[in-house]
User: Fold this.
Amino acid sequence: MSGRLSTPGGALSGGQQQRLCIARSLAVGPDILLMDEPCSALDPTSTRRVEETIAELRGQLTIVIVTHNMQQAQRVSQSCAFFLASHDTPGRIVEAGPTERLFTDPVDPRTADYVNGRFG
Assistant:
């Protein structure tokens, strides 16, 4: 095992690198972990492992995930916020609330259009 500890992180698979980054982040004892597109370039198996890691950590700290993957947001989050931006306007929250409600009964029609794949 000690030989593996000296191996550069770049020699790991994408999923292993992502979990290593999560472990490094946890080493400083954060209250909040911000993850920007944590599974964007990962295969389905690695994505599942990262999502399992997120589920394991959920009770220990707040995790904020930025993702364009609606299925992933629905699988791993308890609360969601839908942001909308345009080329000349900064992003603004259109709607926020419990994930299940946002996906099954959104209040704003733009949220409904996005989560149902009508745009985006």
